[in-house]
Amino acid sequence: MSKYVLKRVLLMIPILIGVAIMIFTLMFFVPGDPAEIILGNAATEAQVIAVREQLGLNQPYIVRLGSFLKELFFHGSFGNSYIYGTDVGTELMSRFPKTLALAAFSILLSTVIGIPLGIRAATHANRAEDRVSMFISMVGVSMPNFWLALMLVLLFSLKLGWLPSSGAKGWQYYILPVLANALGGIAGIARLTRSSMLEVIRADYVTTARAKGVPEHSVIYKHALPNALIPIITICGGRFGGQLGGTMVIETVFSIPGIGAYLINSINNRDYNAVQGSVLYIAFTFGVVMLLVDLIYAYVDPRIKAQYEGQSKKRVKKVKGVGAGA
Amino acid sequence: MPDTAVKMSKGAKRGGQRPPKKLARTGSALYVWQRICQNPLALAGVIAICVMIILSILSPFFLKYDYSTIDMTSACATPSAEHLFGCDELGRDILARILYGARYTLSVGFLSVAISATLGIALGAAAGYFGGIVDQIVMRFLDIMAAFPQLLLAIAISAVLGTGFDKCIYALGISGIPHFARMMRANILTIRGQEFVEAATSINCSKLRIILRHVIPNAIAPLIVEVSMSIAGAGLAASSLSFIGLGVQPPAPEWGAMLASARNYIRLYPHMIMFPGLFIMISVLSFNLIGDAIRDALDPKLKD
Amino acid sequence: MENNMAKKDQRFLSVRDLVVEYRSEGKTVHAVNHVSFDLSKGKTLGLVGETGAGKTSIAKAILRILPDHSTQRAEGVVELDGEDMMALPEHEMQKLRGHKVSMIFQDPMTALNPVKTVADQIAEVVKLHNPVTRAESLERAKKMLEMVGISADRAGEYPHQFSGGMKQRVVIAMALACDPELLIADEPTTALDVTIQAQVLDMINKLKEELNTSMIMITHDLGVVAETCDTVAVTYAGQVIEYGSKEDIFDRPSHPYTVGLFKALPNMNKDADRLAPIDGLPPDPTNLPQGCSFSPRCPYATEECRLTPVDSREIAPGHFCRCIKAAAKATTQEV
Most-buried pick from A94, A283, B70, B225 (CB within 10 A)? Predict the structure, then answer.
């Protein structure tokens, strides 16, 4: 198992480097001269040239890329903000917990509510209850999270006055943002769990369990669910990315000083160093989460676990092919 | 001993008795359409989309108010017989703006998915078919793209391209490529290993013919579901982008952009945020319902 | 037919008027239509018929494990040791399943849970029906594995680490783990290679004799019937169309369908150029013929066969047949 963990971690490194190169390249082609952005409109030609020289902006692409990667991976530095001159890394570090909390609680809520709802729908498949709950969840999937956020603010903050509508000064500030961000996740995970369970419930080994005299409750939770969970875990990991993306938008609605708000603010200010840093930070977080998901996945599915415990190599390939399809 | 079994079923196959023919061949476009028509929710989705498209095109001709006419005397007017959905902060009729604005959300949805599906399928097919070094390069590149949450990638691309209707389409279109490419590649790999491809090879079909006639059609069919679902997702993402100020810009009546400017009036004039959001939801819901029905039609496993 | 089919004391399992209907795309599928048969202690009944004749539905109906989502009707009397299983509450039924009655499934590749070790899957059934600790149940599981010829060392492995034949052995070990009194084997060898088939059949026979288990052997393979069964019920379109001792069926087949089955067999002794298949297909179970269900394919069918339903009649002691022609023939022979 430790071999598998090591292998997955090592595989992460080229991806992270690739992500960094891609973002740097994207930002390299942004129209506009960073020196002019830094100095503002009032700058003289001489000042602009001086700043360019100082930041190494006159260097060719490849040299700048090299120094960027060196700074990033050896010193953990994202550079300075064009506008504020502050260190982007420090800024991101202080904002990160808020974004992470928002995304993590959203995905937690989504799974804790979504999975049982999906199981229930699957065991009552095609009855009225299932149809109604699946329609409601479809509405949930289709609802823009920022609109839901506004509606929640309207009801709970403005009409009822129960919860604050903006800021992040305590736990109660997170209730509405998490709700707004999680609803789509709950609905999506419930739908996915349902279809995954439906497929598994009709599998022969579930009939085998029934034929053994296993009580219905155990048939569902001990025999069917562990198998249905395998695709669900993968999707939940992907969903975490969705929640991170959703967080970007939700933060602006609730004025939560997280990375999303910083990113959008930086885009509007054309503060591309900050943009670059924020995007990288989120992408790295997502990468780490996907790594964790892979590890959980291997833990749950013995077919994957077995490949890394020195079992037949032929099966490895087969399972991998399936994995790519999922 | 096992021969008995074989003979019994062989004997049974003679003669032939046709099953009652009602639906078109499973998997054909006609069959999918018939299944959608049988599903009231999906049918409602199709109708909703069609009605929205028609109204969006015709609304300038039959509505009393233009979507862009500013009338400060009725600024922030609440819904009434005169203005069914009320007016925005500049006194523009919200109904007219929403109907006109449908063209943004719907066309961003269609066009951006057209980009991601076309490029994604081409990339995935190339990777899956050629394998080896091509596959390696394409897949590593896609791995990197897939390391970004999709909305974040769209935001980053928007930051580079700038704002506007066309830029929004490109940003969403590019960010959707990895999904289609990975699915297409996986499908190609599955199909390439199947026996009917070997059968085609064994009767001396040319390689090109096998790809065009056997592999591609079978690999694309499952992606139809993804297209419908992706249009829904792209519509949502487009309105998110516009909401945070990156997609379509005001004064264009894009629904997300309308919500962004209406936000400041939420306390006093909630009607201004109610209707655009409702319409985003209805259009996204419609595409999702259609996608769901297509999935049911193409995947008979989950029937009954 | 019920009156003198078998003496009451011999009956261990008695199935009467079993009906199973499914619902599919708005149509009713008549899978099992008024099936009745008996089975004595320690004996084996062969349930023979083509794919789709309703054999597996009969088995699942006895265990009451028909799929919830599509089953529309499952009725009849299934008496085991004088107790009507169809009338039992679900929790009582759970105690019987896997314990007194157990089943071997057709496809070993899918019958085992992929995320549980084989020992866990066998131990589960032991633990459910016996007052034992987990360690004891695992011990029993290992013993069962050795009994079916799998080394106990492999107990901790997962199904994907076993071959098809090995998996079927695991399934058999699981079915026999609680010394069932009735074993339902649903085509236990169909999914296996020919060489493995004989091994598995031998093993089932041996284990059955050791434990004095009654068995229902479901198969479409007359060779398997010849090797394992005492009595045979030939099923067609959800009905038992001929029922009798193995000798009755093999030496004196009376129903035109049974006769056809034997004609379709290759005979190694005779140098026949071609086999004689039965023309046509089994009827559509959503739309069964009004009269005898075999009449559309029967070379002897008359107007009467097509229009009136045919009852099962005793044509010789213990030999039943659902054919008016065969019954008539039997009567004339007796006279």
Answer: A283
User: Greatest CA span in chain A, whole angstroms?
Assistant: 86
- Choice between B69 and B57, residue whose per-residue pLDDT is larger: B57
pTM for the model stands at 0.81
Residue spans of chain C under pLDDT 50:
1-9, 333-335
The amino acid that residue C275 corresponds to is L
How far apart CA B9 and CA C275 sit, in angstroms, is 13
Q: What is the pLDDT of residues B280-296, one digit of tens each?
A: 999 999 999 998 888 88
| CATH node for A98-258+277-317 | 1.10.3720.10
- Tokens representing B165? 């209707």
What is the pLDDT, as a whole number, of residue B28? 67
User: CA A244, CA A251: separation in Å to the nearest integer?
Assistant: 10
Which residues, at least 6 apart from C195, have a Cβ–Cβ distance to it below 8 Å? none
> Minimal Cα distance from B20: which residue of C?
C284
Q: What is the pLDDT of residues A178-235, one digit of tens each?
A: 999 999 889 989 988 998 898 888 888 998 999 888 988 889 998 999 888 888 888 7
pLDDT digits (tens, 9 = 90+) for B77-105: 777 777 778 777 777 888 888 888 888 88
Distance CA A180, CA C148 (A): 57
Of B152, B183, B281, the CB nearest to A279: B152
Mean pLDDT of chain A: 83
**Could you say which architecture CATH assigns to the domain C2-100+180-334?**
3-Layer(aba) Sandwich (3.40)
Are residues C266 and B7, on separate chains, in Cβ contact within 8 Å? yes
- Note whether B298 contacts A: Cβ–Cβ < 8 A: no
Q: Quick check: B185 and B124 in contact, CB under 8 A?
A: yes
Residues of C in contact with B14 (CB under 8 A): 277, 279-281
B301 touches chain C (CB under 8 A): no
Instruction: Please list every residue in chain B whose beta carbon sits closer than 8 Å to the beta carbon of residue A267.
Output: 155, 158-159, 246
Q: Which residue has the tokens 């196959």?
A: B13
Model confidence at A309, pLDDT cuts 50, 70, 90, reads low
DSSP state of B154: H
Q: Which residues 106-125 of A are in CB contact (within 8 Å) with C? A: 125
Q: Is B6 on the interface with C (CB under 8 A)?
A: no
For B12, the closest of C23, C25, C282 (CB atoms) is: C282
Task: Identify whether B251 is preceded by a cis peptide bond (ω within 30 of 0).
Answer: yes
Give the pairing of strands C101-104 and C313-316: unpaired
CB contact under 8 A, C115 and A125: no
ipTM higher than threshold 0.85: no
Distance CA A33, CA C35 (A): 86
**Residue entry with tokens 């420090």:** A90
How far apart CA B9 and CA B2 sit, in angstroms, is 12
Would the CB atoms of C284 and B19 count as touching at under 8 Å? yes
Does the pLDDT at position B173 exceed 90? yes
pLDDT at A109: 92
3-state secondary structure of C177: coil
Mean pLDDT of A101-130: 89
Summarize chain C as % helix, strand, coil (round to 5). Answer: 40, 25, 35
Q: Which residues of chain B have a CB within 8 Å of the CB of C190?
A: 5
Percent of chain A whose predicted confidence (pLDDT) is above 70? 93
CB B265 within 8 Å of CB B272: yes
Name the residue among B8, B15, B304 with its Cβ closest to that of C261: B8
CA distance linking residue B221 with residue B298, whole number of Å: 8
